[in-house]
Structures are given as structure tokens and as C-alpha cells.
Amino acid sequence: MAIDTSILIDLPEDAPIQLFDLKTQQALIRPALEKRWTTILDHGRYIGGPEVDECESKLAEITGAADAVAVGSGTQALVMPLLAMGIGAGDAVFIPGFTYNATANAVLLSGGCPVIVDIDPKTFNMDPADLERQIDRVKAEGDLTPRCIIPVDLYGLPADYDAIQAIADAHGLRIIADGAQAFGGKDKGRWVGNIAEITATSFYPTKTLGGYGDGGAILCQDPDFADRMRSIRWHGTGDNRKESIRVGINGRCDSIQCAVIAEKLGLFEAERDRRIAAAAVYAARLDGIIEAQGALDGQENGYGLYTVRVRNRDAVRAALGEAKIPNGIYYDMAIHQMPAFAHYAKEGSLPHCERAAEESLSLPMHPYLSEAQINRVCDVVIAAHNG
Fold this sequence. Notes:
Layout: H1 23-43, H2 50-63, E1 67-71, H3 74-84, E2 91-96, H4 101-110, E3 113-117, H5 128-141, E4 145-149, H6 161-171, E5 174-178, E6 186-187, E7 190-191, E8 198-202, E9 216-220, H7 223-233, H8 255-286, E10 291-292, E11 299-300, E12 306-309, H9 313-322, H10 351-359, E13 360-363, H11 371-386
Parallel strand pairs: 2-3, 2-4, 4-5, 5-8
Antiparallel strand pairs: 1-9, 6-7, 6-11, 8-9, 10-12, 12-13
Helix pairs in contact: 1-8, 2-8, 3-4, 3-7, 5-6, 8-11, 9-11
């Protein structure tokens, strides 16, 4: 499908390049945000104000999820469903080994045991074949009980949910999608948030849908499960918010952050289109030269990041730095290479995760890039890669 790159903004040839650009977006919505903040100051409901309901309603509407629950962070959005499922000691939760450490932390905070799965080198996402192997291994060893799978939609690309759901169904496991980087991604027309049974997302400022502080949301296909999340986020209390009817946490998202998200949703689809257009320019310039993250049939990347593989990464980064072009590495260590999680998998046991940690490089990606800026990035990357 041809992508219309003419929707990219026009900037001077020498305009500085940002890895993320929050200031341009803020200028577009600042008057509306200031009006919203004044409203919050006037009504004084800083926690649980009407902005929370508005945010949740809009999130459900845009994604097609049955319900959405705003929470305090993307990590809380993972921990809370695990608590609701009763995950605890002796329970195995399967996660990819190439992700942010929050995915592993959430499992451990719930009391479960992370079982680390290798990735598909094309997509950077959980490899269903290795997932099946790890489930079989855990069952054969008998020390843990398989309970849940947490695929991660890395860089904006949905995981292979068709394959993963089939495996989950065969083994009687639940799925929580870690969509922290992927709001705006799609699989066969369904938005992230309405692909898996439960999806956690993050409103960290640099995400595709980011607030001006910490925040996140849980998107559910079951409204009853969403109501349980609302109880858990308020210390497990009932409707009176006094008596605890289950174990819970302080998992609330405040009215100010929800107002920011509600306002940003008005820009989101136009920004998504420009991210996709920016990615098309990258793909056209780098095809056959640099290996980029690849989608499966029917998938659309939300492009929280534009990530490629480069075997001479240090040289490419040095050239980008000399040209004053920002870039990032997400991530330079696989989960099992971090001291806190080293005992969950042996070095060398997850080769694709380890290779990704050595080769992945994220290039500037946001809705306010010009085609000229993207071409400048590509010029430097190609020259350094070929040099």
C-alpha cells in the first residue's frame, strides 16, 4: 500500500532533529490544556475527577476495547491484572527476554516467577516457537505452574497474537499484552488495546500517547474485569472506597494526566499517519542496506520507535553524534543479562535477544519530522554503515 509522505511537515533544510519532539505538539494544544487545568483547579477533584471518566471513555472508543481503566503507570497496568488473576509463588509467567525491565519487575512484584522467552529476530517480539518450548520445559520440570503469558509489542509492533493465543488456549494460559510502546499499532484492523484479552499501556511522556508525567491504562475485553481493576487501583476497596474487598494498591491516574491524554487523543490519528509516513521514508532509503524491524502480514506498526539493526553500531552512532542527530539504544542488555534477573536464564540461552541487544539502534521518530530531516538521518546511517 502506497503511503502519502506529503503529509509530513515542511521545515528548513537545516532544522535541528529531535529523537522525540514534545514541544511542537505542546504548542498545538497548550491553550486547550491550560483551560482544562483551570477547570481542574476550579472543581478541585485532583484524583478521580471527571477527566478520568472522559479519558477512559475515549480510550475505549478509539481502540474498540470494551472498557479502559486509567492507572498510575505502565508498570501498574501490568501488576494489577496479575494480582487480579491471583498470580503468586510457584506461578510461571512467560515474558520475552528483549524488553524494558518493567515487564520482569511486574511479574516479580505480583509474586510470580518470570520465564524468559527468546524473540523472533525479524520482529524483535516474542518467538511463539520458543514460547512453546519454554512451556513444555516448565511443565516437564514440574517446579512451576504455567499461568500467564505477557507478550510485548516492542517499538510499536504488535506481537504474533494469532500464534500466541493458540498456544495459550492449548495450555490453559491467560494473556496480558504489554502494549506500553504500541498505542496506535494494529493487527488485522484491530487496535492495540483490543487484540488481546487484556492490554497494558503507558502514558510516559515519550510514548506515542504520552502524558506530562507518569500514567497508564488497562484496556479490557471484559467490562467485569475492568471493574475489578478499578477496585484494585483504589486499594482493593468497594464502591464506598473504604472497605477493602480484595488486595489492591494505589494505582490511580490523576485528573491532570487524564486531561492531557484526553486532549492528545484529538491529535492522535493525524500524528499516527505522520509516524507511518516517516517510517515509509526511512524504509525506502534504507531498504536493502539496513535491516529494519519487520511486521507480519496484517500488522501495522504504531512506530513508538523506528528501530534497525546495525552490526557496526558504535561507528554508526559516532557518525550520527558528529552530525548532531540524536539516537537511542532500546535495549543494550537483554533481561537475563541484567544483575537482578540473571538467575532466570543463562548467558547464551537466548541468542536472538542477545544479538538484538548488540545491534539494535533507534532513529528519530515522531510526528513532526520533515522528509528532509529523515533523509539527513539516512544519509549519515548509510555512509557510516557502508564505511
